[in-house]
Amino acid sequence: MNIFVCIKQVPGTNKVQVDEKTGVLRRDGVVSKMNPYDLYALETALRLREEHGGTVTVGTMGPPQAQEIVREAYMMGADDGYVFSDRRLGGADVLATSYTLSQAIAGVGDFDLILCGKQTTDGDTAQVGPAIAEHMGIPHAAWVRRLSVRDGGVEAEQQLQDVIETVYMPFPCLMTVEQDICMPRLPSLKLAREIADKPIHILGLDSFPDTNPDHYGLSGSPTQVERIFPPTSDVIHERWTDGDNAGRLFERLAEWKVW
Question: What contacts 127, CB < 8 A, 6 or more positions away?
């Protein structure tokens, strides 16, 4: 069974800058990490490979520094990794991002199962995974908390708002997984040494089946953001080191009309 896992590099802090002209995050110089939900998707893929055989391929759309999370995936046990990087892909909304990934995955090869984390911590839309499946014309399930492979497909439990729904889908299919599906393993020091020189494939738009630049990036994004900006912080700190601190606290609470 061949599995593709979508991963993404996200800011490691909530203190990020926004480009006011384009409305996208400025990622240069920002400490980054692998999207936490993608770790659960990767661990799920590795466990399925251990049980059923096959390969686990990871891929991410982003700037060249996104190779860092592909290297991390190698240290967890992934077999192959791709970075889909091209300036013409920048500034994409959900529709353009999902179309880009669908084209990129199709260009890499044929996969039985595509796994994504439920959502990313920088976008929080939880829409890219299902949208990839729609572009590819394959069945999909979201919010999956448990899955098993049988009869040439996958049976999955979806954690909906008030109920648990069990669905079966034949291969190829796509699933987005919840964080309680498993506990991700730690990167291996032994694997880190073994994969030190393991290549990471970097592909651009010209390697996709559809090479029309109007379908990608800002050009292919119908969503128009009127304005985006980081939240302002108006927290005021006071430090009391001596005196009647209990009395001061009482006065402050009365002043703020907490009572």
Answer: 94, 98
Please report the pLDDT score of residue 243 as a whole number: 79
Question: Interior CA angle at 100 toward 96 and 105, to 5°?
Answer: 150
Write down the pLDDT at residue 149: 96
Q: For residues 192 and 186, is the Cβ–Cβ distance under 8 A?
A: no
The whole model's pTM is what?
A: 0.83
pLDDT at 255: 86
Is 62 in contact with 189 (CB distance < 8 Å)? no
The whole-number pLDDT of residue 25 equals 60
Cis before residue 213, ω within 30 degrees of 0? no
pLDDT value, residue 27 = 57
What pLDDT is stored for residue 129 in this prediction?
A: 96
pLDDT recorded at residue 231:
67
Amino acid at 119: Q
Q: Are 4 and 59 in contact (CB under 8 A)?
A: yes
Which residue positions in the chain have pLDDT lower than 50?
none
